[in-house]
Amino acid sequence: MEASFWHQKxxxxxxxxxxxxxxxxxxxxxxxLNLIKGSxxxxxxxxxxxxxxxxxxxxxxxxxxxxxxxxxxxxFQSLNLKPQVAKVGALIHYSAKDIDIYVGDIFDLSxxxxxxxxxxxxxxxxxxxxxELRMKYVTHLMSITKTAPQLLIAYEYDQSLIxxxxxxxxxxxxxxxxxxxxxxxxxxxxxxEGGMKGKAAAMETVWxxxxxxxxx
Length: 216
Known about the structure:
By secondary structure, this protein is of the alpha/beta class. It has helices at 3-12, 24-29, 51-57, 69-78, 111-114, 131-145, 171-178, and strands spanning 40-44, 61-66, 84-88, 91-96, 99-103, 119-122, 150-157, 182-191, 202-211.
């Protein structure tokens, strides 16, 4: 999937994937990560999600990666923050108190640039990527975060009925991609109200991924 696909979505305002409130699964299960206040949480492909305001309001620091500069301009406006903006390699770094966002291709984000990530909250990244990119993404994510613990939200539905994104990702695929490095726990599964894009019955699952210390 080309970057132009997402740039056009934001330019046209075609952002039905953007939720108008913090994700209730985040609110219900974030404490499972057992983070202390001030911990730094990485949100890959974050958009302008209200989950960021939710985390900041509870005393956590946020670092994000996002392809669209439009999304990040709107994010900082919604937070009433005036960011400092600087070029960092191929990326653009937006920063303010307790928040750093890197705009550009997430595969250009390195571990030194990212800095410390105490945990990952992946609501919109894995499900946004087609199958041929998901393994590359998973490998890169674990590399730059040193296999930090995760809350991961995934959807499951009949992919033959509609095209993604968001794509359908089964429990078997999550095990295949993450099982060698993480212990996986499905914390909650719920029906997606109205189905996926109103066309297919769908389930949404929040997973807790904890680093498997026995992994090589």
